[in-house]
Amino acid sequence: MTAEAGGDAADGELDALPDDRFYDRELSWLEFNQRVLELAEDETAPALERAKFLAIFASNLDEFYMVRVAGLKRRIAAGIAVTAASGLTPRETMKRVGEGTRTLMTRHAQTFRELVPVLTAHGIELVRWRDLDSAERKAMAELFHDQVFAVLTPLALDPAHPFPYISGLSLNLAVVVRNPHTGAEHFARVKVPPTLPRFLPLGEERFVPLEDVIAAHLDELFPGMDVMQHHAFRVTRNEDLEVEEDEAENLLKALERELMRRRFGPPVRLEVEESIDPYVLDLLVEELDVHRGEVVMLPGPLDLTGLWGIVNLDHPELKDPPFVPVTSPELSQFETSEAPDVIEVMRQRDVLLHHPYDSFSTSVQAFLEQAAEDPNVLAIKQTLYRTSGDSPIVHALINAAEAGKQVLVLVEIKARFDEQANITWARKLEQAGCHVVYGVVGLKTHSKLSMVVRQDDDGQLRRYTHIGTGNYHPATARLYEDLGLLTTNPEVGEDVSRLFNVLTGYSLNTDYEQLLVAPHSIRSGLVERIHREIENHRAGLPSGIRFKVNSIVDEGIIDALYRASQAGVQIDVWVRGICAVRGGVPGLSDNIRVRSILGRFLEHSRIYWYANGGEPEMWIGSADLMHRNLDRRVEALVRVLATEHRERLTELLELGFSDTISSWHQQSDGTWQRVRRGPDGEPLMDIQAELIRRKHESRRTPLV
Q1: pLDDT bracket for residue 9 (50, 70, 90)
Q2: What is the pTM of this model?
Q3: 186 counts as catalytic
């Protein structure tokens, strides 16, 4: 048992829990990505939706290797043999991860090959060079000369030219050429330019991989030499950042230096086409310093993240039906072309938003844009973790500052893989006169908070706040399922003010009325309420727990759930990704039911629901149940107070756990089974399609 596993236990019952009660974090992530792959394998799904999930699977796996596998490799190299909560050592985990990823990558490649003829039947052809006729090859030769040749740089390997640096995730050609005069063979590397389309068009809807076109014209890159062979390969590197904040005089500059180093991280995976010559593979393994166990051999083409270019083709009949978010009926009785007066509505009542079904642009974005223009607004305070490239949120904050309002923006510049974008935004905000801070040393600020301070017409100074589960990112708000609360509740406003003071100054406040805040009170607050459900159950009062999260890994909370299950409390866990809790294990978690739902929208919201003796209590916010969220981030959950909002969230959870909904059911061994049909053989409902239907129904029914 780990120390953390027993950290919230008040008695000795935990000692009786089995050592194998936690499913391994990394293996659970692979199970999640397998569920993504199963969406791509679904022959009943629209063809371009299947292609989308192939691209998502590949992108997910790239990040998993860059961060999680890189971390495992680093621990093994350092000789750290501490076992995980699952009981596996880093070496054991690495072995199982390697076996699991190979199996999944092989399935991924096979699914692509099976999808190609399906796309062809719909007029979208993905072909290789060998499939082109003479006219097409001539057209590609012209395109090569006009758009490709000038950006290519062949790099030789010989005593005067050391092995070139291979950047992470770049697609490359390993080329062997021979001098016809001496017979000597030489190795060279040609990088496939990431600035060009991954699949080059041959007409409107016929495409050939870029590397095939380059390979067919290698003789022009090596004139006078004989091109003997060529093979595509791709390297994944450790791209996680390490910044010692306590030692960094200027976090911004320290992070910029670390971003430069990221490009030179050690390799953690080498992907090659299965047709590669053994000599070339040996050379790559030696020069890149990778282990044989880190080599993955696949049928081409490699790097199917490039399928996004195909997914974006204008073929609505091969995609899910279009969906346009609508203005929340709580903000406007009728759908109009103008955004509602959000601040005016907030004075009258709290508003619970459910994105993407409720429009982000006519709610949260409109709230901040209206506040920026409102002469009665004195100050705006905002956290930014991720946002879009041309962010209307950032523009609103800049406009507010330029209008003379006091604007405070907490920019989390350590948001993984968005660091450079956030540094750019931070500088622009500073130049506009915003007060920009970077949070608390040693903690990432992941909470989603906005606060507008306004001198209302009645003379009162009011705080208008938004607390959400998702980022202030208009683009992802159309793709991610999230919740948000707009409120003028004085206690919530006071709590958010105090939290901003913690983030920007030297406040040590950890007490809040309507918030739970990590790293101080989320774990303890949730566990305390789990214990309360146990007492309610023993007292014969209504009891029950329902969590909706992205990931659940924290051992302290999982053990509290196990104890509640053993006491007879019914527990439902709705998890999108990583899940270390094992439901349905006899004697341990008989009363825990675990479901997972994936689909066209990324299920991103977090809800913590307790029966609370018949008066359900629930919280929404930014925190998942992971160590990083509960111990190393500033996260915020807000209590949902309005009766109608609690009823809406209860209804959402009941729908998610209903046997009428298509979902994945976790088995007691930690694996997952997709359940898509009912006992009668009929397809089960897709929850997201059902919520879209309900949203359009509500649009036709005026709010009374």
Answers
A1: very low
A2: 0.91
A3: no
